[in-house]
Amino acid sequence: MFANQVKNVRIQLEMSQEKLANALGVSFATINRWENSRNEPSQLAKNSFYEFCESNFIDINELKKL
Description:
By secondary structure, the chain is an all-alpha fold. The protein has helices at 2-12, 17-24, 28-35, 43-55, 60-63.
């Protein structure tokens, strides 16, 4: 579930929702909605998130198992 992936990455990187939002170029509200399953991101947004993960040495294959 994408919500779990976002929250897991944010916690692993010790980032607030606001800092993660800034890093991804989205709003705090967007991160909050993703984490609370209130909004499903576009494929472009998901790709951007996964690229961010890779650049921070997070194994995407393991992440997608969540």
